[in-house]
Amino acid sequence: MAAHSSIEAITARIVERSKPHREAYLDRLNRAVTRGTHRSVLSCGNLAHGFAVCSPADKGALAGDVVPNLGIITSYNDMLSAHQPFETYPDLIREAAREAGGVAQVAGGVPAMCDGVTQGQPGMELSLFSRDVIAMSAGIGLSHNMFDSSVYLGVCDKIVPGLVIAALSFGHLPAVFIPAGPMTSGLPNDEKSRIRQLYAEGKVGRAELLESESKSYHGPGTCTFYGTANSNQMLMEIMGFHMPGSSFINPGTPLRDALTKEAAKRALAITALGNEFTPAGEMIDERSIVNGVVGLHATGGSTNHTMHLVAMARAAGIHLTWADISELSDIVPLLTRVYPNGLADVNHFAAAGGMGFLIKQLLAGGLVHDDVRTVFGQGLEAYTIEAKLGDNGGVARAPIPEVSGDPKVLTTIDKPFQANGGLKMLHGNLGKAVIKISAVKPERHIIEAPAIVFHTQKELQDAFKRGDLNNRDFIAVVRFQGPKANGMPELHQLTPPLGVLQDRGFKVALVTDGRMSGASGKVPAAIHITPEASDGGPIAKIRDGDIVRLDATTGTLEVLVDAAEFAARPAATADLSENEFGMGRELFGAFRRNVGHADQGASVFA
Length: 606
What we know:
14 strands; Glucose Oxidase, domain 1; gluconate utilization; 606 residues; globular
């Protein structure tokens, strides 16, 4: 099925812009393919080190260089719910590899930190940078040149983007991503949010708050709201890195294990040693990237991906811009209602038809490219299915039903929840920014109010507790939160107090060079402002009382000050010495000095 003319036009524009970078990338990839990943190029000493702990059978297979060896990159740790299930995956993958006539080895581990644990803490300032560390860590694991293919075990916020950057940097190898799935449903997300706001108002104590949080985050798997972690899983499926239907199957189930083994066998089937060679760097192209952006809009996905998708694309020589993302948002309707864009969680989304139904609707509207390569070996149409457990314990797939299992959660292309994806780009005399409006009521899409300036989220919280923010409309400007300043932490601790004030009937918004991520909710928030304050960006010139206008309908963000006066103002500075040390922050000084702008992926690689 051909894509819509507007989708084709945007894709063609990306292709043309990327041509010199993409051609150079593919040339490097082809040269790596030509050199091959054959253990025969290793010296006997090299090879002996590489398979010293293998079984005699696996040593014999690897020594003969006639069977494929699968490299496993894992983000397993047993502290974080989303990554704990990966503990048992290597054994499943090794078993599947032997059944398929191959070998599998854990090539390396990568760090996996949780923004939920570090919110409001010093460690949060390492979060964004961990993406590039993960990419480098995976690169070290694969650098041994022992592998014909790779599988990546990762789920959450920075982990998957980092692993994708690594997979595309080693783009001469096939790459299959294997998820762990979401935890089962616990306390409803809207109830969790309600308790958080009551705690912010002092109406419940810490014991009640901890009980609520523990009932929400209660077992293995990803958090069930539609934040960056679950946006990652959507992306991996719609971009063709997952096996069809695998994204949202709960951990610890027979189907989850069957999908894991199937993915491992598929990774071995698509090596250069067979007839279906599918190097990741060729498989992922401009059409795949556009499909990912479309999926992000159709599901009201994480704002973090306005940076991650740009960085991921650039790892394959593809230059995606915020303008591309914004233009696609205007075309793609919102087809899901998953918290914070609705009351349902990702398990309800999966039960309503999940990725299979969503992709089918997007194909019907011509909003995604079907003629893409995937790890499954077919185009995107092959993903319009429901994965089930077969009679033999393997994976069986059935056509997705024509009707949504719950039209309040997942709708059809002709009856969207709203006409656009709700992820908008803003521009004006404050620079460029991102806003997610899929959970913001239409009457709050335009906010014009006096600025109140803060340099930390704690300053705003303290002002709220003192009552300084009561009985007034305002736009909170929280600056010096960008990548260069302090690693661009997420500022979720601002959501409860601002939500309380908005619920009291006041016009409230947030303007910041920091992040809010996939949990961006009902309060209008212009985030990722670039240039950031630490670069002397215009946000550093705002003063208390300046009238700021945030207009998500026209895509503008302006401070309503005389242009000459505003240009003449000196940019404010901030003492950031407290952000340079402690909890590992001293190790990341080079990252803060060399990181790129948010609209260029906030990466140290480009």
